[in-house]
């Protein structure tokens, strides 16, 4: 086994660099930013030395290439139970959703569940952000204060300033943790309105058939219930 100490050694081979980056992300235990990776490899974002600046630029390109190498290994292949999660230049290893059942059994962890009002409120904030409480209340038709407090406690939404109107109410946006919980790369991965409508139409169609079967004496009932 060859021990690599000088930082420059890692940049002599993209495979070695990718392995080093992989080890750092794994060891971090949580998301690590691209800037932090640059710092670890002594790459300065503010370098006045032109020669060093060119070297750092090439090193940054190699680290990005190493990350793509890791993504190709863990995200595109089917041999691993984990994948590299990328969220706004923050990286972490996560277990693939299809193995959550067996992992939950191992850890005896129950999946996080939300009530319909909680999901409704979270969806409104996700799609309409930045948004204030009164706007959420207007859309839902009821007060959402307790649910917004719950979502804040769960770190699914955050305060993103105050709106410049009378009273200066708080503005809410979703967090990076929200993206992680729902396995979204970014907000662009949110399903479109038409996709949501398709799901609702299919659900209503299934419920209607189930009701007809029940009325016809064939047993059964609502497969989906609001």
From TrEMBL:
Residues 207-226 are annotated as: Disordered. GO terms for biological process: cell division; chromosome separation. Gene3D superfamilies: Winged helix-like DNA-binding domain superfamily/Winged helix DNA-binding domain. Residues 217-226 have a biased composition (Gly residues). Pfam families: SMC_ScpB. It comes from the Bacteria. Coiled coil: none annotated. Keywords: Cell cycle, Cell division, Chromosome partition, Cytoplasm. Transmembrane segments: none annotated. NCBIfam families: SMC-Scp complex subunit ScpB. This is SMC-Scp complex subunit ScpB.
């Amino acid at each position: 086994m060859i021990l690599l100490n000088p930082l420059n050694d890692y940049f002599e081979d993209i495979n070695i660099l990718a392995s080093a980056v992989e080890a750092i992300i794994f060891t971090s235990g949580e998301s690590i930013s691209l800037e932090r990776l640059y710092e670890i490899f002594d790459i300065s974002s503010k370098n006045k030395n032109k020669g060093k600046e060119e070297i750092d630029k090439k090193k940054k390109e190699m680290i990005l290439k190493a990350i793509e190498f890791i993504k190709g290994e863990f995200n595109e292949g089917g041999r691993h139970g984990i994948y590299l999660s990328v969220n706004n230049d923050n990286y972490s290893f996560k277990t693939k959703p299809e193995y959550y059942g067996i992992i939950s059994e191992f850890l005896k962890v129950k999946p996080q569940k939300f009530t319909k009002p909680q999901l409704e409120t979270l969806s409104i904030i996700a799609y309409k952000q930045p948004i204030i409480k009164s706007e959420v209340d207007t859309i839902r038709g009821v007060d959402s204060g307790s649910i917004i407090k719950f979502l804040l406690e769960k770190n699914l939404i955050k305060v993103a300033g105050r709106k410049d109107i009378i009273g200066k109410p708080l503005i809410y946006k979703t967090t990076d943790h929200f993206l992680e919980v729902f396995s979204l790369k970014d907000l662009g991965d949110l399903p479109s309105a038409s996709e949501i409508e398709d799901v609702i139409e299919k659900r209503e169609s299934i419920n209607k058939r189930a009701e007809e079967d029940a009325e016809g004496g064939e047993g059964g009932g609502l497969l989906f219930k609001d």
